[in-house]
Amino acid sequence: MLLVTGATGFVGNNLTASLLKKGHRVRVLCRRKEDAGKFSSKAEVAFGDITKPETLKNAFKGVDTVFHLAGLVSYSKPRDELFRINAKGTENLLAHCENVDRFIFSSSVSVYGEIRGKADENYPLSPRTHYGESKAEAERLILDSGVKSVILRIAPIYGRGSPSWKKNLGLLERGFPIPNTKNTTHVVHISDVIQAFEGALKRGKGVYNIAGGTPVPFTDFAETIVRQLGKRPRRMPMFAVSLLARLTGMKTYLDVLIMNRHYVIDKARKELGYRPKADFELEIKRMVEWYKEA
Question: How many separate domains does the chain show?
Answer without folding.
Answer: 1
